[in-house]
Write a structure and sequence with these properties.
This protein is of the alpha+beta class. The protein is 42% helix and 26% strand.
Length: 156
């Protein structure tokens, strides 16, 4: 084999290794980012559900460093509108009037600086009346940290 051919093959092997190495690194970074986003959702809901009393009416969400400031303002405006409307309303973090019996946290999907994750609420867990309902949690990456920017009920 000539020296030129050997050199060309060597360079091709190096380039191939570099491309696959970069892709593997990007894949690992994306998986970590998705795991971090999902962890933010779970951490927030575990804190929220452990809060003594009614965390929504106490506006406990204001204390959380895991929500964007814009989402906190949206929740405040919604709370003010519910108060003005009179009795009734629902907890907009849980999207329900009652606390579910269990919560299951799904993986997050990341696209750039936004992510979505699914939280499954389990009503009457372990009984013949068990019902599941999914919430979609939207996150934004702010200063390198995943923060919750919205919560919706896709069924409504």
């Amino acid at each position: 084999m000539s020296k030129k051919l050997s050199l060309v093959l060597f360079v091709l092997v190096l380039l191939t290794a570099a491309v696959f190495g970069t892709r593997a690194f990007q894949s690992q970074a994306a998986e970590k980012s998705a795991a971090d986003a999902a962890a933010t959702v779970e951490k927030f809901y575990r804190w929220y559900l452990a809060y003594p009393g009614n965390p929504f009416t106490a506006r406990a969400y204001r204390e959380s460093p895991l929500l964007t400031e814009e989402f906190k303002a949206e929740l405040d405006a919604a709370m003010d509108a519910m108060i003005a409307a009179g009795p009734g309303g629902a907890d907009l973090i849980l999207r329900a009037q009652d606390i579910p019996g269990d919560m299951r946290y799904g993986a997050a999907t990341v696209e750039g600086d936004t992510a979505t994750a699914t939280v499954t609420q389990v009503w009457n867990p372990g009984t013949e009346f068990e019902m599941l309902r999914d919430l979609t949690v939207t996150l934004e990456k702010v200063d390198g940290t995943w923060l919750i920017a919205g919560i919706s009920d896709p069924a409504h």
